[in-house]
What does this fold into?
Amino acid sequence: MTATPRTTGRHRAARRHRWVWPVALALVVAVGTALLGTGGTYALWNGTASTAATTVRSATATVSVSSTTAMNTAVLGPGTSTTGTFTVRNTGAVPLSMRVTTTASKSSVAAATGELTLHLVMVSSTAKCVPGLTGTSGRLATFDTGTGAFSLPAGVSGTACLEMALDADAPQTVAGATTDFTLTVTGTQVSA
It folds into this structure.
């Protein structure tokens, strides 16, 4: 005996299984999510290496900075400069790489800070701080020696020479201006 297929109406199309696509999509999403959650590497080759034994020691990194000797900028004329010094001491137990930046500058005439150039160089004594030394230079408002301008071993002091120069072509409008500025000295530990 043969069975005849059951039809429910005249000219009706065969029934489709509409639940297959949503289930297949959900299965793909579930497998993809599971693979993302495993968090491993799927490299063809993996390798490992060991290093030699290392000793880690803790230490302190501290810096003390003296006040700057007075810089008489009231006597500056176009193309002239004045100098001053300050002492930096590494009072910590690790060597330091030093950086000096301007963190504030204020002038009684707004245009004056744009006409001033600051130079910084390390010298062996305050007597060696004279105009014209080479070193790091930049506009007063944005002065930055960058990291590693000079290094200080633990317990060592250094004398920094500052030279402030007024541009030779400074306009008459900056005559009589007074300028205050703040320098920040930062030390970063370096390997011994």
